[in-house]
UniProtKB/TrEMBL annotation:
It comes from Lentibacillus amyloliquefaciens. InterPro entries: IolE/XylAMocC-like (IPR050312), Xyl_isomerase-like_sf (IPR036237), Xyl_isomerase-like_TIM-brl (IPR013022). It holds the Pfam family AP_endonuc_2. The keyword Cytoplasm does not apply. This is Sugar phosphate isomerase. It comes from the Bacteria. One of its GO terms (molecular function) is isomerase activity. Residues 54-265 form the Xylose isomerase-like TIM barrel domain. The lineage of its organism: Bacteria, Bacillati, Bacillota, Bacilli, Bacillales. Gene3D superfamilies: Divalent-metal-dependent TIM barrel enzymes (3.20.20.150). The keyword Isomerase applies. Coiled coil: none annotated. SUPFAM superfamilies: Xylose isomerase-like.
Length: 316
């Protein structure tokens, strides 16, 4: 018999653990994984259009674009609540957007202040609309080159100053590791854990994973999910080409098995597709005019394929 490749050996370990757990504790698999969708990649369309597309695909949750870039910008709380009620849609969380203009790690104090102000606005919004988490990126997306050797320290100190506010609003701070092509630091689950430990605040303990970034930075995505464990509160999904699930070579089965191993189907923990396409800076997508047919395909293909794969695994 041909010797297996290293990643195949790791896959098989996860599969064996999944099957053993399923055989010994079948009750743990009665609840399915919760799918949401991150809408900021939909670009310049109304929130109602986004919600209608997701509802048509059978989704019950949406991750909202954190678009409160100023006091007079972003989704209105009352209007958002009205739309959520109208379409019976719930909010999983809010995708925080961090650029060089609101960078927690910036060497320009005013830019760190912008990050603080931005997070304050998004926490108020997230709490009001019933979201579970606010995604936080420790350094600016689209800036792969470091400022200096102390950006980690500035970022942790700045985020820690907001810890009590996260606690008061009862919102989880979900720290996201991002691939090195897009950010200058915090690239892996291990990095995120070290960052969280350095922040050292009881309200800032969670991780937002992203399998597209993981395929660049982790030695094995399934193992990284298991390493994140109970700290993982949201996981962004995209295939290997950062497109719809099932249109690349991402090993979705192993990802699903790893998630069930850590009990990710229990409680308010979410899987949130974010197929943005390749490139070093995805942020231009939020200001682009969307192709409605393309977006419909992205959503329908991704949701259908993910549910099919989970169904297949739960039959084993």
């Amino acid at each position: 018999m041909m010797k297996k490749q290293n990643f195949q050996i790791k896959n098989e370990r996860i599969r064996e653990q999944f099957l053993k757990l399923k055989g010994n504790s079948p009750h743990r698999f009665q609840e399915r994984l919760k799918l949401s969708w991150s809408n900021w990649g939909f670009g310049l369309e109304t929130l109602e259009e986004s919600i209608c597309r997701l509802k048509e695909a059978g989704l019950q949750y949406i991750e909202l674009h954190g678009n409160h870039y100023g006091d007079d910008l972003g989704y209105n709380i009352d209007q958002t609540l009205d739309l959520l009620s109208k379409y019976d849609m719930k909010v999983s969380g809010v995708c925080g957007m961090f650029s060089s203009e609101n960078d927690l790690s910036s060497n320009i104090p005013q830019k760190r202040q912008e990050a603080i102000n931005y997070i304050q606005r998004e926490l108020e919004f997230t709490n009001a609309i019933g979201g579970e988490y606010l995604l936080v990126v420790p350094g600016a997306v689209g800036r792969p080159n470091p400022y200096d050797e102390t950006e980690f320290d500035r970022s942790t100190q700045t985020l820690k100053s907001l810890g009590d506010l996260f606690k008061n609003y009862n919102i989880k701070a979900a720290v996201e590791p991002v691939r090195a092509a897009e950010v200058s630091f915090i690239h892996t689950v291990s990095d995120a854990k070290k960052y969280i430990d350095a922040v050292d605040h009881q309200a800032i303990r969670h991780i937002n994973g992203d399998i597209y970034h993981m395929q660049s930075e982790e030695s094995h995505i399934g193992e990284a999910i298991i390493e994140a464990g109970s700290q993982l509160v949201n996981l962004h999904l995209a295939d290997s080409n950062r497109g719809a699930l099932g249109e690349g070579f991402m090993d979705i089965d192993t990802i699903i098995m790893a998630l069930h191993i850590i009990g990710y189907n229990k409680g308010n923990k979410f899987l949130t597709p974010e197929p943005l396409g390749p490139g070093g800076d995805p942020y231009p997508a939020m200001n682009a005019k969307p192709d409605q047919n393309k977006l419909k395909h992205l959503v329908q293909q991704t949701v259908t394929y993910f549910k099919e794969r989970e169904d297949e695994l739960l039959k084993l």
